[in-house]
Design a protein that fits this description.
Blueprint lengths: L12 H14 L4 H6 L3 H14 L7 H15 L2 H13 L4 H5 L12 H14 L7 H11 L1 H23 L29
Helix pairs in contact: 4-5, 4-7, 4-9, 7-8, 7-9, 8-9
Length: 196
């Protein structure tokens, strides 16, 4: 499938700035930036939201990553799954948890809390949402209210990403292919810098 929008947008000053950042951080200009650059106001708002969300630190990063991946998988955004796999892998997430994400209910790779986070992400992402009081109560008890708000907001941000990318026809850019999965028990951590 090819993108439903040109990925060769006008070269505004803002697009040049975000392209520089994207190249530096990810080794290439990511397609959501190329698509968003057709509308400078959207690109500016999207960039500010991503930078702000990156500074939220009340929720455990591994739980946040699992929630984002579950939301992307529920929407079916191949771009987000590809990029999310690479980011999560580079941050040291257990490769088994990444591989078994599509069948997380049948996997024994996840803790009870991780399963609750995954279920919440899916419940928030389906249309209409299927979030239940008991689900929120369990998460509030385990995480605290600040982390629950951050979790909810990250799932909402991922819904925006995944739905926008899917609608515009953005697909994998090969980030997952850049991960070198080590056999179980191997030491060392992969970092995005190693890919450049």
């Amino acid at each position: 499938m090819t993108a439903r929008i040109s990925l060769d947008p006008p070269r505004s000053l803002l697009f040049r700035a975000v392209s520089w950042y994207s190249n530096r951080a990810y080794g290439k200009v990511i397609d959501p930036l190329r698509a968003g650059a057709h509308h400078t106001g959207v690109l500016w708002a999207y960039s500010r939201l991503e930078l702000s969300a990156g500074r939220w630190k009340k929720l455990d990063p591994q739980l946040k990553a699992l929630a984002v991946m579950a939301s992307a998988a529920t929407v079916g955004c191949s771009w987000c799954m590809d990029f999310g796999y690479w980011v999560s892998h580079s941050q040291g997430m257990d490769p088994r948890k990444l591989r078994e994400m599509p069948e997380w209910r049948e996997s024994d790779a996840y803790t009870k809390l991780e399963r609750e986070v995954l279920a919440y992400a899916e419940a928030m992402t389906v249309t209409p949402p299927r979030v239940e009081d008991e689900m929120v109560d369990r998460l509030r008890s385990s995480l605290g209210e600040a982390a629950l708000v951050e979790l909810t907001s990250m799932i909402a941000v991922e819904n925006m990403r995944s739905r926008s990318n899917s609608a515009l026809g953005l697909t994998s850019q090969g980030f997952k292919d850049r991960c070198e999965l080590q056999p179980p028990g191997a030491s060392g951590r992969h970092t995005p810098a190693a890919d450049r």
